[in-house]
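Hi all, long-time lurker, first post. I run a small reading group and we've been trying to get comfortable going from sequence to structure in the token notation. Rather than ask abstract questions, I figured I'd post a concrete chain and ask someone more experienced to write out its structure so we can walk through it together at our next meeting. Sequence below, copied exactly:
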Amino acid sequence: MADRIVVFGAGATGRGHVGLLAWQAGFQIVFVDSDHDLVKLLKSAGKYKVRLYGRQYQEVTVSGYRSYHSEQREQIAAEIAEATVVLTAVFDQNLPDVAKTIASAVPACRRAARKIPLNFIGCENMQDSSSVLGKYARAMLSGEEMAYFDRYFGFPDCMISRVVPKPEPDRLVIVAEDYNEWTVRAEAFKGEKPAALTALELVDNQTARLERKFFIHNGGHAVCGYVGFHRGHKYIHQAVADGVVAEHVLGVLDELGRVVQKKHGFSSESIKAYQQNFCRRGAIAELRDQVLRVTRQPIRKLSCAERLVAPAKLALEYDLPRKWIVKGIVAALRYSHAEDQQSLELQELLRLRGLTTVLQEICGIEGDSPLAGEIKRAWEDWSI
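-- Answer (accepted) --
Happy to help. Here is the structure in token form:
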């Protein structure tokens, strides 16, 4: 079996995080992307660079990969049949299309008489991307193909953490931080983890690790982005240096940390270290991480299972402080940008249906909840 890893998504995360880590571990990389121009560019160039910033600068040149357009399903299926692991970094709305290719890979694997388990890991910024991908693919199968799929294909959910802004202006140069956190649910992983892929960590407490990252990192990042937007900043490192933004971020990090510690039993020391790491990472000016990247899709980010509303509800349940989380929710509710369609839809909903209805329908917060009252008061007292 060739030591290759197929990566759906040749964008920032695919090439600058999981694809890079797999390549550094010695795997042959196969990129799949829906952007014709990018696929053509990667083929003609034969290499790209990743510039890593953080504790120590490093520049890595990645080469020796293959790349396909996502419509080349037959060729991709043949690559999957010989793969060690398959990864996705495509955004959640593109998982159904990836699932079509995975479904087409089942007969290819059967023809190749493959008996080695194959894991498909959704490296998306959502809590259950792998299992969602598996459900999409399984729905397209039946009979012996479904039986093969259930026996040999695994879809363990994962969590990734590395800031990789969109590559620009040179698409062959990616800037990223040198930090990595990449965990996968051990009990859902089929077969043995590739020993060489040391950057991937199989864990028994995936939910705890994911929520620590999702609440503290993603929640803190969101508050930094939304408050930074209202303060007129373009980049995250600029927002971090703003005293008003910093007050909001430090306040929300403390509240989010207390929620995570209460729910999952992390030590105070580990939570504090995680928070400090977050602050260090946000101050890396070379990343030029745009505020608009962090604030995009506010309707999704304000849903009941997401980075601000979910911990706010837990803080209410645990009777923990939540003033800064509530302020962050209001900052997100008041965010609007002409190039962010979800933000425009959110503002239209607020205009037509009012805050109470939006809290119920978008955030899953009932009108008679104490949390709704706290958000309404913060909305009325808004100033930044």
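A couple of things your group might point at:
The chain has a mean pLDDT of 96.
The first strand starts at residue 4 and ends at 8.
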